[in-house]
């Protein structure tokens, strides 16, 4: 049974997940981070020990949660040598098999959300995607997920990778578009607040209808005059212009013959 947890990583995701697990009754024993300040900052919030050296990592936890960047995971695994311990990572794009050579009981505990330390989140609304190499750990991870979230899903590594790809489109790329919109308004002395009701309504519509059906704008109806005028306005920003043209063509081809 999982009761005592060590977090390896103290970033955005680790912070939110550690707080949620503590609130659910789990004992966070220790937080490891490369820097003492980041380890201590999270550790204080969850009444845990902190460390920034591999030698000081506690070996008496029931579960070790790796909340690290994809490229950092393998070197840390190699350095820690946690053979025989239960290990999970929290990444969307890394396969379960990354643990094959390091222990006998391992899994994935992937919360699908964008995390920032400064923003509070209700973890009960965050989907938790789980995978494990054995039924016992799978059951324990499902229980842990159910204690903090109303949505727990069993997904294979392939499914989770596809989900992560979809999340990049719907979150990261969309947020980049927000930045471009903000820049275009700022150049003319306008405030980004003007776009916020539109952003909210766009997000609300896809809660009630397919995204394709919710699509509006000049590209859907292939309004060449408007599209050309927009491209002309972007002539001094060739990267934005190229992006505008590419996305407009993608929307048009999807809806052609509608």
From TrEMBL:
Pyrroline-5-carboxylate reductase catalytic N-terminal domain ranges (all copies): 4-89
Q: Where is the DUF2520 domain?
A: 126-250
Kindly give the SUPFAM superfamilies that the UniProt entry links to this protein: 6-phosphogluconate dehydrogenase C-terminal domain-like, NAD(P)-binding Rossmann-fold domains
Q: Which InterPro entries match?
A: 6-PGluconate_DH-like_C_sf, DUF2520, NAD(P)-bd_dom_sf, P5C_Rdtase_cat_N, TM1727-like_C_sf
Q: Which Pfam families match?
A: DUF2520, F420_oxidored
Superkingdom in the source lineage = Bacteria
What name does the UniProt record give this protein?
A: DUF2520 domain-containing protein
Please report the organism this UniProt entry assigns to the protein.
Ancylomarina salipaludis
